[in-house]
Design a protein that fits this description.
Blueprint lengths: L2 E2 L15 H5 L17 H7 L11 E12 L5 E11 L2 H7 L1 E7 L6 E8 L5 E2 L6 E4 L2 H4 L3 E3 L1 E7 L8 E8 L11 E5 L6 E11 L5 E5 L6 E5 L2 E11 L11 H4 L2 E5 L4 H12 L7 H11 L5 H15 L1 E2 L1 E3 L10 H7 L1 E2 L1 H14 L4 E6 L20 E8 L2 E5 L19 E5 L7 E5 L9 E10 L5 E10 L1 H16 L1
Length: about 500
């Protein structure tokens, strides 16, 4: 659902921070001030604060969740985030006592306007410098990845049952991708109830923007103010999302709104191809290795399989995500020499080697993951794109391959890439990007079958016989795991 506003944004989700950074990391502005960044009087906060009895099934409540975005005529963006949260019990203090602010070092650090704990008695306690730390997110530490993605973590002092956590920060992000455009989004629901959620975007009146909502119909209030257009979304008494086992991430199921000046997905394709097309060029070592791999092979499928197996298994996954490197692949020659790279690097090398073999192939941008997909009929960047794979031109159409998956056989596309619309970077002058469906998910193609037989004798002894059979990807994965284990032994 595209809604133009008058006045004619490992499968290794951290491997390619392509659009997620552009949209979700909180964002000089020549527009009027949007809101006061000074703290509200304590007396007013305590007077309006809810009581535990108002939310008996919650460990706390978000009293205010506010995002204020301003964009100037150059497209530079400033974001002010204000949040106020009351904790009710030990679980609330334990879970929310560490305030976490995500940011990207190369984009600019958040400036704290104020941070404080307000006790039920009205005492204000501010954190010391030692209570504020900048750390690498734990989710990045478990992968071979080097990144300037950080969390500013604030240990809130003096928390007791009924205390209020009140803070505000401002961030002015630099941009490395689609520098003349902007996009931002806002999530209205969380695992806590929200008394007031407020999102406001102010842009110059000549800037054409689009907005779309995800989850429910969320039309904004639109007004003109001193040469600017102001879009405001307000929701009150928002119910919490109750956590369940194996549920998708909260940010995937929350009501959300996206505001963007990016006109089309073709803009994304052109921007990426502008960075990637020179990186695909093969050098002599790549040509030599490719000829070695395809020597004696007759069919294109045999050649593609040989090149895929080499890139998937011999080029290890390592992501170095700094600055423009979050979006721009490294040169194929560098990836081949280093024998490592992230998903877009491995895709670039594979396309380069296939080019040497005389086979056309293209990088593909996709939102990998089992619980979500990008809706390309929405304004970009929609739900985002976070992964790069390869599409190979075969006689019967495009064949999708994911060289990041080092245990996936040639015939198997990971489940997290299946059944999705993806952006194929064709590199054609008339149409750079082509939106295409990947292979559908077929549960019969990859499964584990468990047969159990139980027998009980006269003495009450129970005997169990278990038989396991592996099919498709799982049979290959089990074989690879056993071989790896044998080598280690």
């Amino acid at each position: 659902m595209k809604k133009p506003v008058d006045n004619s944004t490992k499968f290794r989700i951290l491997s390619f921070l392509f659009v997620g950074l552009l949209v979700n990391w909180f964002a000089l502005s020549a527009v009027p001030a949007l809101a006061e960044t000074s703290a509200r009087p304590v007396e007013e906060i305590l007077k309006s604060a809810p009581q535990r009895g108002d939310y008996p099934d919650s460990d706390g409540v978000i009293m205010l969740d506010e995002g204020l975005v301003s964009v100037d005529k150059k497209g530079d963006k400033k974001v002010v985030i204000n949040q106020r949260l009351k904790v009710f019990n030990k679980e609330g203090r334990q879970r929310y006592g560490e305030v976490t602010i995500p940011y990207v070092e190369d984009y600019g650090q958040p400036k704290l306007n104020y941070v404080r704990t307000i006790t039920p008695e009205g005492e204000v306690i501010k954190p010391d410098k030692g209570d504020i730390k900048d750390i690498t997110p734990a989710s990045l530490q478990q992968y071979p990845m080097y990144s300037d993605v950080k969390n500013k973590v604030i240990s809130m002092p003096g928390l007791t049952d009924g205390a209020v956590i009140d803070y505000s920060y401002t961030i002015k992000p630099k941009r490395h991708f689609l520098a003349d455009e902007f996009s931002d989004s806002w999530q209205f629901r969380s695992e806590l109830p929200v008394e007031s959620s407020h999102f406001q975007v102010t842009v110059p009146e000549e800037t054409e923007v689009h907005w779309t909502d995800f989850g429910s119909d969320l039309p904004p209030e639109v007004k003109e103010e001193e040469g600017n257009k102001v879009f405001t979304w307000k929701r009150t008494d928002v119910k919490k999302i109750t956590e369940e086992p194996a549920m998708p991430p909260v940010n995937r199921i929350s009501d959300r709104v996206l505001v963007t000046s990016i006109d089309s997905w073709e803009d994304y394709a052109e921007e990426f191809w502008g960075m990637a097309k020179t990186q695909v060029k093969p050098n002599d070592p790549i040509r030599k290795k490719t000829q070695e791999l395809i020597s004696g092979l007759e069919t294109n499928e045999e050649k593609v399989k040989a090149i895929y197996n080499y890139v998937a298994t011999d080029i290890r996954y390592v992501a170095i995500e700094f600055g423009r490197g979050k979006y721009k692949p490294h040169k194929a020659s560098e990836v081949f020499h280093n024998k490592y790279g992230d998903c877009k690097d491995k895709a670039t090398l594979m396309v380069s080697m296939l080019k040497v073999a005389g086979i056309k192939a293209h990088p593909v941008l996709i939102l990998s993951g089992l619980s979500t997909k990008t809706e390309f009929n929405e304004p970009p960047p929609g739900m985002g794109l976070n992964h790069a794979i390869v599409a190979v031109e075969m006689d019967d159409g495009l064949k999708f391959l994911d060289p990041t998956c080092d245990v996936c056989p040639y015939d198997y596309l990971p489940d997290s890439d299946r059944g999705k619309e993806a952006l194929v970077i064709m590199g054609d002058e008339k149409k750079v990007g082509n939106i295409t469906d990947t292979d559908r998910f077929d549960p019969e193609a990859s499964k584990v079958v468990v047969n159990q037989n139980f027998s009980l004798n006269d003495k009450g002894d129970l005997t169990t016989e278990v038989q396991l059979s592996y099919h498709g990807f799982y049979s290959y994965y089990l074989k690879a795991t056993l071989e790896q284990y044998s080598e280690q032994r």
